[in-house]
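Deliverable D5.2: sample structural annotation.
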Amino acid sequence: MSRSCWIAAAALALALAAPGAAAAAENADWLSYGHDNQLTNAVSSLDLTPTSARRLKRLWVAKLDGAIYASPLSARVGGRQFIFAFTEEGSVYAMLASTGQIVWQREFGTVTTLDCGTWGITSTGAIDSVHGVLYVVNADGVLHALDLTSGLDVPGYPRTIVPRSDFEYVWGGLRIANDRLYVPVASYCDAGPADDFPDGRLFSIPLADPDALTEWQPVAGPGNLGGIWGWGGVSVDPANGTVFTGIGNSHVWSDDCSCYVDNGGYGDQVVALPPDLSSVLDADAPSLPTTADEDFGAAPLLFHPRGCPPLAAMNNKIGALYIWNRRRLAAGPIVPPIALSDGINAFVGSPSWYEGRQLLFDAQAVLYGPNGRLGNGVRAFTVDFGCTFHPLWAALVGDGNQATPLVVDDVVFATGGETGGFFALAALNGARLWKYPTVGRTAAAMITVGGTVFGADTAGWVYAFHPPPPPPRRLPPSPWIRIG
């Protein structure tokens, strides 16, 4: 069968097949980047369908004090649905999901660096819904544990975990798993003193005893980079608690070349670690082309297509998607790298996975037309039983860095990146269902709770969208005539 015929047949099969699990209740929380610890970024909904997505209307909009790059979060607090947002002015907001009204705000300030600008909060926090706590790290390297109701720090917090906050920074999202909080550390922009570069590392902090934290350094020794940059931070295997992450470049002197190398230690690798980070269980350093920036600036998606082993998929800054058997990382990727982007804007987002239709989505793919480059958008792939990935469709939604797609059953929500805007696409064929322009750029991942979709932009606006009820059906006139 030809490639074009296979794609057409796959599209028809997808259109006829029902999702693997019918939507039950609306999603009620969004506790960390990617929704779950596998970073699938996918949920079910009764309210959000390809039909209702065409009718999406803005429910409210709220202006905050700074640019927003972190994903919003959401949880039920005292019987009310809250939305939590983080800004580059170092502020954390709690808002009512129904109206956008600000319930509380904490201001932690900013850090101005020598070479990399001014920063606040880029990392997406993590919510411990059992104890009602929101964890967040500001640019000053201080970890806060905020009571969801009041915004005040709970006993034992705040605590400084990144002392070199003039050079080291938490980009990646925080994650709660294995009764621990995971905090990834990188740098602002690989800048620092020539004799003491920043150090990348990963902290594992027991929730019950924060003083017993453990630390893992991807590149041993001081000043050797190896930052963990991915927006998702780490992902966690639900079967055994194994922690997966992607590592940025190292800065290690090599006598072999009388130069600094960027793949020393676990630089430019995917790694698997036990919950306490006490050892490296598995790792892979795939062959990468020599470019100016070829490290992994992403966290791996963990997914398990039918007929495949458990997989991990991660974007590399060069513009390629790598996919491994996550039980055998050292064996290398199971398929050749899938070229999606051009590496001009670092390819740092994570793919999304739709279990019901067995579809993989990745944003910031470069799309071309007859006259050359059109911009960036979403690419969709089907997975067959031989673990082969086949392109299904591509949809243009903007340009530049774009967020991880949000999958809500048969609807994919995407951001426009540098050109701004939010988009809804049909998961089966990429058809555009809805578009909304924004004031600023849209790099923050969108979320959904209660059938409402939330997004944010770099102008500091938070947006909420919900489909209104469909118009009442007009019944045909009765053929009966009343007499008397």
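Annotation notes: Confidence is low (pLDDT under 50) at residues 1-9. The CA atoms of residues 254 and 374 lie 42 Å apart.
The annotation will be released with the project's public dataset once the embargo ends.
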